Amino acid sequence: MMTTTTENRNKNSVDRLNEFDQATFDRYFDDRFNKKMAEKEAAHIPSMTIIVTKGTMDMAYPPFILASTAAALGWKVSIFFTFYGLSLLKKELDLSISPLGNPAMPMKMPVGPEWLRHSEMNIPNVLMAGMPGFEKMATGMMKKTLTNKGVASIDELREICVETDVKMIACQMTVDLFDWSKDDFIPEISEWVGATSFLPIAQKADVNLFI
Amino acid sequence: MTPSINATLDARGLSCPLPILKTKKALAQLNKGEMLEPITSAPGSVKDLSSFCEQTGHELISSEVNKDEFIFIVKKYS
Description:
Shape of chain B: globular
Radius of gyration of chain A: 29 Å
Structural class of chain B: alpha+beta
Number of strands of chain B: 4
Distance between the termini of chain A: 81 Å
Radius of gyration of chain B: 11 Å
CATH topology of the largest domain in chain A: Hypothetical Protein Ychn, Chain: A
Mean pLDDT of chain B: 91
Number of helices of chain A: 8
CATH class of chain B: Alpha Beta
CATH class of the largest domain in chain A: Alpha Beta
CATH topology of chain B: Translation Initiation Factor IF3
Number of strands of chain A: 5
Order of helices and strands of chain B: EHEHEE
Largest sheet of chain B: 4 strands, mixed
Largest sheet of chain A: 5 strands, parallel
Number of helices of chain B: 2
Number of domains of chain A: 2
Helix content of chain B: 25-40%
Oligomer: heterodimer
Structural class of chain A: alpha/beta
């Protein structure tokens, strides 16, 4: 009889002790966990990877603008240039735009009187795209508009990317596929690799874009 | 009291993202706690510069509109 009571008392106090410990421990753990997580977040350097697949002037702007801006914010950026996108790493950039497949492209004169500059030339896309010499003209107009509006050239943005340590990764398969020479490309390319080497970088990045 | 400016950056006539990129570059030339005065004309630069400061830890002391120009004072993070 006596023994049972003592045992019960002991058991109760052990339970109480466990309960107390658990609550204290939970509080301690939560505090510590939150603190550590906050430290980790504060020390985290955001990263971004971009896959660039297009080589026209209009499609060259988004990756270089996003990459240079992210680098300015202190992010770690890697760009994988593949297929037509690889041509954006050529030493000599000769980019053009095509109205073909871009029916939403605004057609405005970059020169001439004010009323003309602000009016859209309403030419059906199929005509624009099919007319010989139209691409060259559209490219010239776009370049003029970009200069007028103080938008950086692709050369300039690419240079800023290189200066700010944006990693330029070139697709090995593409250069083989199109029989291009690696000598035609800028020396700042950090590596010539395939998807297998790029994907692990993308896997760890906070932001992944496909352009 | 107007804070003393250590450097001015004329980014007028430049479009996104050049004002930000040039601000970043100009801040790199300064010592911690020094003031940069970027002047821009791109309307988007008002929100962008404020966001840039928020992200990078630099302090946006002031942001003013003067006709078609935007004048900022940015204190390099210390």
